[in-house]
Amino acid sequence: MSRPAAIPAAAHAQSFIMVCMRLVVPFLVLGSSALWSADLAVVEEIVAKCNGDIVTRGDIDRSRKELAENLQRDGVSGVAIENAVKQKEKDLLRDRIDRLLLVQKAKDLNINVDGEVTKRMASIQHDSGVADPEKFQDWIKEQSGLPYEDFKQEMKNSLLTDRVVHQDVTEHMNVKHDELEKYYNEHKSEFMREERLYLREVLISTDGKDTAGVAAAEKKAKDLVARARKGERFAELARDNSDAVTAKGLGELPPFKKGDLNKNLEDQVWSQPKGYITDPIRTANGFLILRVEEHQKAGQAELSEIENEVTGKLLQPRMEGALREYLTKLRQQAFLEIKSDWIDSGAAPGKDTSWVDPAQLKPETITKAEVANKVKNKRLLWAIPIPGTQTTKSSSSSQ
Known about the structure:
Blueprint: H1 2-5, H2 9-23, E1 32-35, E2 41-43, E3 46-50, E4 53-56, H3 57-73, H4 79-88, H5 92-108, H6 114-128, H7 133-144, H8 148-168, H9 177-186, E5 192-193, E6 196-205, H10 211-229, H11 234-241, H12 263-269, E7 281-283, E8 286-296, E9 299-300, H13 307-333, E10 336-338, H14 368-383
Antiparallel strand pairs: 1-2, 3-4, 3-10, 5-9, 6-8, 7-8
Helix pairs in contact: 2-6, 3-4, 5-8, 6-8, 9-13
């Protein structure tokens, strides 16, 4: 348990940013990128227009680069990366358009995630250990490769798309109990369990503290135990108070088999029931509090124990189809133009997305004589009485 807490906070924050960057794809448009001369600016090529937004060639290039970086982080290398990128790059434009449509839909639904963005950015800053706002913005750019405001916008867009998918797609899906039973009975071998113990932790660090600091840390740990035993959510106490890197994940630890834990810790929690909370345990780097979340027994798991897991397995393939159907409907309703040498692999059937170049539209022309005639006719119209009305002479001023 002490090992995770020893990881530097900055490393944890950097890891969190990398996860964010894997989940979101930058869509910000690069304007004038370079100057060939004092008078000539190179403007990035627009490859698609989606309602009020655009996708540029640079956006696609950045997506391709991120795809390669993600594959590399997953351990793929050499020719395998090239083959994987070639296989997936056909969907890069589709994914860009999907994202724009979902963000636009979030605005239509008046979804607001500003508060969550603020909390997440504050959490990243706390984990980074960079208190100065300007230095923190520089740190974000260094870690993510994006300017601070762009990084925030990417995080916001990711939250907006998740909210739309949950609200308009996931919430309308359900699985009947008969389906759960059928899947469970047909895949029982998948649900054989080894004995596992699931825990959450709160660590109050004593690293670098003097005697008074250690005493204060112990008092804080005891106060947190009391609050947790009175009913406060342990996960939230971990998120807001723990000095361990697991705080971001609400204090959740990976499952333990018998013998994985330090014997002193194992003796205190292994035979305890779900919900049990230890007293503060003195460790080399602080005071540790553990809560028993679940004790999974060895053998065949009951359906009631794994209902959520089975539901997820049944919903996953349906989710992909339902989301694609939803995005197709958004495409059908959208103003969408795509250049002829680009292909949207998620195109809506029958939807005309032909690119119209404004420069090639023929201007409507009119002669001076026609303009003059139109003005004359407009004036003449005021002289024609409206049927059913009559005109009278005005009285003189003396009358």
